[in-house]
Amino acid sequence: MHTDDPAALLDSVRTVIRLARIAQQACEEAGLNLAQYRALNSARDAGRRAYELAQATAVTRPAVTSLTNGMVKAGLIARESSKTDGRGVVFVVTEYGSERLREAEALLLARFREVLGDAVGALEALDTIPLELALDEQVDRDFGARA
Known about the structure:
The protein is mainly alpha-helical.
């Protein structure tokens, strides 16, 4: 559904912002901030280079250094040599990072079900594909097209 009503769009944006606060609280309860959650989620199946984590976390390239250093220090991720490029470094999720990610996702599900109650169906009905595509296009504009 497309609307040209700025008030309706702003209402939706305000709701998304309120939902983000719930997500932030659940992640913090699991010992993560949202950028760490996004980084772990991005790297959960395969190692990621720093620029890929910058894209996934929506932080600037300089800020990703601070993010990855903190996550390595916390034991959430580890640096490894790239299998395709021996000079490159990839970040892989550690077992501890996987545990934090699983805990965060369990808390996210529980918290959203608790807070939204019968309205959780509205969240489940959200058509995420066009939203994800639009967000990916913005990442490409911000960071350059992904390989």
